[in-house]
């Protein structure tokens, strides 16, 4: 088991955004993202990994193929890995995000797919 704390993570950098691994697992990982006011991540995708973004503090926007939505402290967003997204800090204080990435379960055959769905663990 691993436990990490935001207080041990790097702080904001007014010259550039911060995005780095925060907690690594064998099937998933969490990245810490810190954006100072006015900073934004470039548009990007995450391949085949599902992505959940939790806003820990601050206020920003999330731009996706589906439009722009507010991403404020306490918000949790879900994006498919192939969706292009961009996060920007539109607030007056720092925006801290935790980005949870997990690869999807890839059944190898229709039989295996049916077994996964029947077990209650599938999508």
| Subunit arrangement of the protein | single chain
Unreliable runs: 105-109, 112-123
N- and C-termini, Cα separation:
27 Å
Estimate the helix proportion, in percent. Answer: under 10%
Strand elements, count: 8
CATH architecture: Sandwich
The ordered string of helix (H) and strand (E) elements is EEEEEEEEH
Question: Strand order, biggest sheet?
Answer: 1-2-8-3-6
The largest sheet, given as strand count, sense and whether it forms a barrel, is:
5 strands, antiparallel
Name the CATH superfamily assignment: Jelly Rolls
**Distinct helical segment count:** 1
Shape: globular
Strand content: 35-45%
CATH topology: Jelly Rolls
Number of domains: 1
Class per helix and strand makeup? mainly beta
Mean pLDDT: 86
Rg on CA atoms, Å: 16 Å
What is shown here, in short?
This protein is mainly beta and 123 residues long. The chain contains one helix and eight strands, in the order E-E-E-E-E-E-E-E-H.
């Amino acid at each position: 088991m691993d436990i990490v704390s935001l207080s041990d993570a790097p702080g904001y950098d007014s010259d550039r955004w911060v995005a780095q691994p925060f907690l690594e697992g064998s099937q998933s990982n969490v990245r810490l993202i810190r954006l100072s006011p006015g900073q934004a991540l470039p548009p990007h995708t995450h391949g085949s990994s599902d992505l959940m973004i939790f806003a820990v503090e601050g206020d920003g926007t999330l731009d996706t193929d589906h439009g722009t939505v507010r991403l404020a402290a306490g918000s949790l967003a879900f994006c498919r890995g192939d969706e292009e997204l961009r996060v920007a800090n539109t607030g007056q204080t720092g925006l801290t995000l935790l980005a949870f990435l997990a690869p999807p379960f890839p059944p190898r055959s229709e039989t295996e797919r049916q077994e996964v769905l029947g077990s209650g663990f599938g999508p």
